[in-house]
Task: inverse folding
């Protein structure tokens, strides 16, 4: 009884959510993700570090992939598959960022604890000349998790969702 139920569930998902609509959802989710990042930055004054900015790039790419998949319907499947890879890339960047925030490893040069060597005057000069938001500090958290932590789970889930949908299509030979 389980196999027929799963088969009907797969067919329902595929018939209810055509590839072009999934591609559109990918673009919309990515737009909303960037809108949330810009709201945090400009609405709440949470300045992004270099790794935060780097995590925005895959969202920009997935917006383009989703739009291409929606408007050029014959490209929907490859665009969904590629979007899954870019979501995975974003999850990897966010995981690296999470490790930097938790001080498990060093961040990019210039976005972690600055060089503290030299005289007081040299140190003060470096600090004054540097307008860097540190990647190894957590400016905001909810339930003990930072935005980078949430982005790991979010993007990993989106990547798995993209690929699971493509696998469903292939299993049903659609």
Result:
């Amino acid at each position: 009884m389980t196999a027929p139920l799963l088969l009907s569930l797969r067919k329902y998902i595929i018939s209810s959510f055509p590839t072009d609509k999934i591609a559109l959802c990918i673009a919309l989710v990515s737009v909303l993700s960037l809108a949330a990042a810009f709201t945090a930055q400009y609405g709440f004054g949470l300045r992004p570090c270099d790794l935060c900015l780097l995590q925005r790039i895959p969202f920009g790419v997935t917006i383009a992939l989703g739009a291409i998949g929606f408007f050029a319907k014959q490209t929907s499947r490859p665009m969904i598959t590629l979007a899954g890879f870019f979501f995975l890339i974003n999850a990897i960047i966010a995981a690296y960022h999470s490790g930097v925030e938790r001080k498990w490893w060093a961040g990019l040069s210039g976005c972690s604890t600055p060089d503290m060597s030299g005289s007081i005057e040299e140190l003060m000069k470096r600090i004054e000349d540097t307008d860097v938001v540190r990647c190894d500090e957590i400016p905001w958290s909810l339930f003990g998790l930072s935005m980078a932590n949430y982005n790991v789970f979010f993007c990993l889930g989106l990547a798995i969702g993209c690929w699971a949908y493509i696998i469903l299509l292939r299993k049903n030979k659609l």
